[in-house]
Amino acid sequence: MSARHRPTLRARLVGSYALVILIGATTVVLAVRLLDPYLLGRDLGRQGRGLGLGRAGANAIPHATLVSALNWSLLIGVGAALCVAALIATLAVRHILRPLDAVRAAARRLAAGHFDERVRPPSEPELAALAEDVNGLAAALAATERRRTRLIGDLAHELRTPVTTLRGMLEGALDGVIAPDGPMLASALEETGRLERLSGDLAALSRAEEGALSLRRAPVDLTTLADKAARRLAPQFEDKGVSLHVHAASATVVDADAERLVQVVTNLLGNALRATPAEGVVEVAVRRAATGATLTVRDSGIGLTSEDLAHVFERFWRGSNPGGPGTGIGLTIARAITEAHGGSLTATSSGPGHGACFSLELPLSPRAPGAP
Question: Which regions of the chain carry the CATH code 1.10.287.130?
Answer without folding.
Answer: 126-209
